[in-house]
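Dear H.,

Thanks for agreeing to be a second pair of eyes. The structure we're designing against is below in token form, covering all 298 positions.
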């Protein structure tokens, strides 16, 4: 009981502490001024991009569910996807996505649904790494390439290992091995269905390219000219930093990464404002939109 209360409290405290550190270095009034001067046309455009990303993400999850032998209508997937959004914004590493398993527990074993969420994350990581590598090649970011290329190989190797439907870990109970196989079922099913595999990979890549474009719009909204390829190289790194499970929805850590990675293009108060827009539009607006769906019978 205490652990359930202590962990969210600790994460909240860490998030607030990181923002406290940021605002000891950056004048809060200057951040407010930057945000108040934002170009609303670009803000609206970024929200429209979000409106494209959501159905792509839902369609991808629907495909993953289908290859596991549990097809669901698009609107059912959409409703459950929306239910998960409020939790993904306040939990570290988007772990709130596992709520999908709860809403489908009467139709699909929870371990299989959790496996589909894990599969989504693997494709997200693959796409972000590839996008960053492409941008890093154009900008000769050797340090990124040295780190990301081995990580790409490791993730690809992990994908091959977990796609083995007969995967078993010795010295653990058969019941746990059964759950493990259920969790890797979607990945193994995708690797056997090449068409579905490539469609899921393409949808993941398109979704994250749109996310990079959306971030460029955040910069433009705050009157910062930023090259698209430079953003491709750096935004995935900031997102990965935000996935470190120590803050609410990656806030604070992701903002600090944006300030560091884009320092040659703008001042710290402008970049912190970009980070705030990122959190607001990519996480908090979808979360608020998802709240009414939590009261529906999905």
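And this is the sequence the design step returned. I haven't edited it by hand at all.
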């Amino acid at each position: 009981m205490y652990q359930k209360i202590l962990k969210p409290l600790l994460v909240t405290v860490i998030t607030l502490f990181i923002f406290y550190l940021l605002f000891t270095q950056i004048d809060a009034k200057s951040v407010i001024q930057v945000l108040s001067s934002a170009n609303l046309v670009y803000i609206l455009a970024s929200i429209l991009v979000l409106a494209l990303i959501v159905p792509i993400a839902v369609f991808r999850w629907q495909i993953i569910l289908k290859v596991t032998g549990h097809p669901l209508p698009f609107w059912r997937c959409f409703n459950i996807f929306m239910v998960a959004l409020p939790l993904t914004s306040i939990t570290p590493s988007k772990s709130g996505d596992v709520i999908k398993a709860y809403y489908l527990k009467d139709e699909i074993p929870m371990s299989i649904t959790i496996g589909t969420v894990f599969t989504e994350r693997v494709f997200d990581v693959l796409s972000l790494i590839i996008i960053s590598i492409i941008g890093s090649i154009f900008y000769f970011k050797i340090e990124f390439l040295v780190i990301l290329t081995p990580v790409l190989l490791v993730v690809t190797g992990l994908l091959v290992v977990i796609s083995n439907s007969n995967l078993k870990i010795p010295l653990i109970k058969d019941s746990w091995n059964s759950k493990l196989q259920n969790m890797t079922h979607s990945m193994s099913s995708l690797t056997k269905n090449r068409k579905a595999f490539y469609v899921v990979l393409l949808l993941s890549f398109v979704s994250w390219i749109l996310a990079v474009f959306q971030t460029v719009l955040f910069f433009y909204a705050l009157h910062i000219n930023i090259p698209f390829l430079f953003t491709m190289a750096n935004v995935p790194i900031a997102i990965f930093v935000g996935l470190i499970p120590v803050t609410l929805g990656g806030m604070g850590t992701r903002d600090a990464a944006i300030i560091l990675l884009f320092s040659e293009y703008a001042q710290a108060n402008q970049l912190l404002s970009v980070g705030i827009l990122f959190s607001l539009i990519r996480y908090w607006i979808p979360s608020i939109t998802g709240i009414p769906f939590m009261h529906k019978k999905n």
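Two observations from my side: Residues 110-138 form the longest helix (29 residues). Residues 37-294 form one domain.

Warmly,
E.
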